[in-house]
Design goal:
This is YdhG-like domain-containing protein. It is built from four helices and five strands; from the N terminus they run H-H-H-E-E-E-E-E-H. The protein is α+β, with helices and mostly antiparallel strands. Strands 1-2-3-4-5 form a five-stranded antiparallel beta sheet. A hairpin with a 2-residue loop joins strand 2 and strand 3.
Length: about 160
């Protein structure tokens, strides 16, 4: 019988030299950048998951809610790309830093006669002592789209 021997590969001197070639500040900066990249990857993954969930909810909606939600999604992603799509109470919503800025409540959700486009307090819509934070939508027209685009841009501005 022969005995098995395990061989360990020879270590290269390169890692030790690399470790010695960077200052502690440079190594700290590299660790910080690695944390940033992980956070960016997590945010991108969260954004993709949120958009997938939002699009699935939109696909479940009956007409005309589906059409309005699809148009709203296209408008928000084009005019406010900094907002992250997500669902909020099972409805399409768009958030900044995890806080919902605006959301769409389909008429079918609560058996209402109209859908609603709403804005939370994180939206920059303040105008004097009183301003609207919710808008009824009965259909999506070019005029409605222009007004919604202006509201969304103002909300994130």
């Amino acid at each position: 019988m022969t005995a098995k021997t395990s061989r360990k590969p020879a270590r290269s001197a390169a890692p030790d030299q690399a470790a010695q070639s960077f200052t502690s500040e440079e190594r700290a900066a590299m660790r910080e950048r690695a944390r940033e990249l992980k956070a960016e990857a997590r945010a991108n993954r969260d954004r993709a998951d949120g958009e997938r969930d939002l699009l699935a909810k939109i696909a479940e909606l009956p007409e005309p809610d589906r059409h309005m939600a699809e148009r709203l999604h296209a408008l928000v992603t084009a005019s406010a790309p900094t907002l992250s799509p997500k669902t909020w109470y099972g409805m399409p919503a768009y958030a900044r830093d995890g806080k919902v800025v605006c959301y769409f409540t389909p008429a079918s959700k609560f058996n209402s006669r109209y859908a609603t486009l709403g804005f939370n307090d994180t939206a920059n819509l303040d105008e004097g002592a009183m301003w609207p934070t919710s808008f009824a939508l009965t259909e999506w027209t070019a005029e409605v789209e222009a007004r919604v685009a202006a509201l969304v841009r103002r909300a994130v501005g």
